Structures are given as structure tokens and as C-alpha cells.
Amino acid sequence: MSDVFGVTAWGKDWLRMAQPTSITRPNPALPRARTLARTDRVGDVVLAPGSIKATVTVSDKQQHQVFLTLQVWNADQSAAARGAIADVSASDLPDAVHADLTRRGIPVGPKADSVAASCDCTGRTTPCVHVLAVYFEVARRVDEQPRLAFDLRGVSPRPARDASRIPIEQIDPATFYGHGTTVSAGHTEVHRAALDS
């Protein structure tokens, strides 16, 4: 079964936080952490520049608060990142942009030593299963919306236009239904010329 986490270069950065390539033995907390993320037990997620807050629900009676902090880009890194995405839709950031930023030495994803994680659980392992679950959830969200990787680093790409909604003031009634139609009193009248073509 393939993982639903880290399917893009953007999400892989967060997947590596949970599953670093440098480990020499399996982490027994990973299956539980993946399950918590897959079953939507990581909620109330707030992604902000330099921070992530989330609630991990273990059971009906047990929840844990997780808080992560990471470095935002400095002014030079932010300018380079904005330049890399200047001609790209913020809703569809291809992996090539990630590769370009990495090639320029701009850290897109976090490194383990650059993230401070805290959880209110009493677990003794670091990171605990709840922090790992948040890493998986962030990986999934960044996979779905790569612009979140920029938001976390303090750079907001151009806002993505929601394709399912168009502000009403941007609609021209004369052309909305295509050439050869007019809008009248809440219904569409099709001109004879449009039917003949």
C-alpha cells in the first residue's frame, strides 16, 4: 500500500521529519502516528509563518496539543522564493520550483534540528507519536497545497483563485453565457443566430 503522505517534493520535506533517512532502526511509533493522521485525528491545525499548532485526538477522552516552530526565510531567501514563483500559479506549484529553490540553497522544508516541537503528553520519546502525527498531517496538507510551504516560511504566494467561485462583480452578464445569448429577468434567452450555428 502506498503512503498518502509525501507524494510531492513539497510534502516529502515534512515526511522526512517523521521518517528521517538517517535512522538505523524502525521507529515503533510511526505506524500509530500514520494511523492518527490517516484517520483525521489531527485537527484544529493552524499553519502560520514560523509555527504550527494542532490537536491530536487519541480517544474520545484524550487529546494532546502540539506546537511546532520553524525558521522563516530571511529577506534574501524570501526575495529569491518570490522570484522563483513569479510566473507560476500559486495553486499549482510544480516540483520543479522546489528543485530550483533547493538548487539555490533555499531550505524549502525544515531540517530536524531547525524545528522545535512541544506536546503536552507525558511520553518520553522525542519526537512523540503526536508530534509525528502532526508531521504526517502537514506533509499531506503541503502535498495538496504546496503554497503552504511558502506560508510556513513567511512568504505568501499570489492567492490562488478558487475555481469554484467567481466574485459576482467580475461577471459580465452580456458575455457570461457565451456569444449569442442575453440575460433577461433572471432567465436566458437564446438568440436564433446562436441556435442556427
The radius of gyration is 22 Å
Instruction: Look at the structure and give the mean pLDDT.
Output: 83
Low-confidence stretches: 190-195
Helix and strand pattern: HHEEEHHEHHEEH
The portion of residues assigned to helices is 25-40%
Number of domains: 1
Structure in words:
By secondary structure, the chain is of the alpha+beta class. The chain contains 7 helices and 6 strands. The protein has helices spanning 9-18, 30-38, 75-84, 95-103, 129-144, 147-152, 192-196; strands spanning 42-48, 51-59, 62-70, 115-119, 181-184, 187-190. Helix 2 (30-38) crosses helix 5. Mean pLDDT is 83; it is low at 190-195.
Task: Please give a quick description of this structure.
The chain has 197 residues and is α+β, with helices and mostly antiparallel strands. The chain has one domain. The protein is built from seven helices and six strands, in the order H-H-E-E-E-H-H-E-H-H-E-E-H.
Descriptors:
197 residues, alpha+beta, four-stranded antiparallel beta sheet, two-stranded antiparallel ribbon, 7 helices, disordered C terminus
Question: Which helices and strands occur, and which strands form pairs?
Answer:
Blueprint: H1 9-18, H2 30-38, E1 42-48, E2 51-59, E3 62-70, H3 75-84, H4 95-103, E4 115-119, H5 129-144, H6 147-152, E5 181-184, E6 187-190, H7 192-196
Antiparallel strand pairs: 1-2, 2-3, 3-4, 5-6
Helix pairs in contact: 1-5, 2-5
